[in-house]
Design brief:
Distance between the termini: 32 Å
Radius of gyration: 18 Å
CATH superfamily of the largest domain: Hexapeptide repeat proteins
Strand content: 25-35%
CATH topology of the largest domain: UDP N-Acetylglucosamine Acyltransferase, domain 1
Number of domains: 2
Largest sheet: 9 strands, mixed
CATH class of the largest domain: Mainly Beta
Strand order of the largest sheet: 1-4-7-10-13-16-19-21-22
CATH architecture of the largest domain: 3 Solenoid
Order of helices and strands: EEEEEEEEEEEEEEEEEEEEEEEEEE
Number of strands: 26
Shape: globular
């Protein structure tokens, strides 16, 4: 395998790009960022300094992934998604002087294995998006998202459960669910969904 970086992309010399990964037109990958194997960084996407991405991640066009974000394997970040990194953003200090990089503490967004973030969603750090969770397009995530949760709205709230296929699960009893696409079954206990075969 090889790495594909188009001429118009801006990739720092000390960024690590895994085998089979592609960085497309006008994308920027900053210093010390680490991308696993088979990742795709779409047109105009931004990967901040030191961001960590696992294998098989996709950043769609114009996604903005600010440091210190962490993406595990198989994470999908839709077009124009924004991951913030500052609790209290300001351009200047109270005395009016320009703030510098060491004037604030960066906080990050963590996306667990298989999570998907829909187009134009905003994830307000610090938050964790759980395993195989799905954030609906246009949502604003302000608190942690459980594994397998489908969240939507402003602020985002859980509206359904989804399986690994991303399809909403069908409830079969008070506490059990089935994926209509794969047939996999899940059990909910105290607001936590787990895979029956895991």
């Amino acid at each position: 395998m090889s790495v594909r970086i188009v001429d118009t992309a801006d990739v720092a010399e000390n960024a690590q790009i895994g085998d089979g990964s592609s960085v497309w037109h006008l994308a920027q990958v900053r210093e010390e960022a680490v991308l696993g194997e088979n990742c795709i960084v779409g047109r105009g996407a931004y990967v901040g300094t030191g961001v960590q991405m696992g294998d098989n991640c996709k950043l769609q066009n114009y996604a903005l992934v600010y440091e210190p974000a962490r993406l595990e394997d198989g994470v999908f970040v839709g077009p124009a998604v924004v991951f913030t990194n500052d609790h209290y953003p300001r351009s200047v200090a109270p005395d009016g002087t320009l703030k510098r990089g060491d004037d604030w503490e960066a906080v990050g967004v963590t996306c667990r294995e298989g999570a998907s973030i829909g187009a134009r969603a905003v994830c307000v750090a610090p938050v964790t998006i759980g395993r195989w969770a799905l954030v609906a397009a246009g949502s604003v995530v302000t608190k942690d998202v459980p594994d397998f949760a489908l969240v939507a709205g402003v602020p985002a709230k859980r509206i359904r459960w989804v399986g690994r296929a991303g399809v909403p699960l069908e409830q079969t009893t008070d506490s059990t669910y089935t994926c209509p696409q794969t047939g996999a079954t899940y059990t909910e206990t105290d607001g936590v969904l787990t895979e029956d075969d895991a």
